Amino acid sequence: MNPLTKVSTLMTSELITVPAFTPIGEAKKLLDKHSIHHLPVVSPEGKLEGILSHADFLKVVEKYDASQTVSSIMSSHLAKLEPDDTVRTAANLFALNRFHALPVVEGEKLVGILTTLDLIRLMDAEKVDLSDY
Fold this sequence. Notes:
Strand order of the largest sheet: 1-2
CATH architecture: Roll
Radius of gyration: 16 Å
Oligomer: single chain
């Protein structure tokens, strides 16, 4: 695996996003329907405002009411990547923190998301030379 690979080559750029005023129940349906664990929260202009993880939802699953919105439980102080950041930078951020997804932004606009699964797929796709063993 080349640790200098650009994040832009691995990130998911076709994203499912929600605005901050989305009801929590609707957000949960999107997570389940698309089998995803992270839902970026964006403004109408595409500016990243936060991220809702499956874990965030689980913290309130038994005590939320239908009037609550994503803004009440999303994480808003986020580590972020830029498209030209490297896989090494992403791996370091994942290793230093307890999250599994990093939004990728250009300026303040969300352009993608990189997950630990993306890094695993990169490693899995690497050709193995049996002589290395």
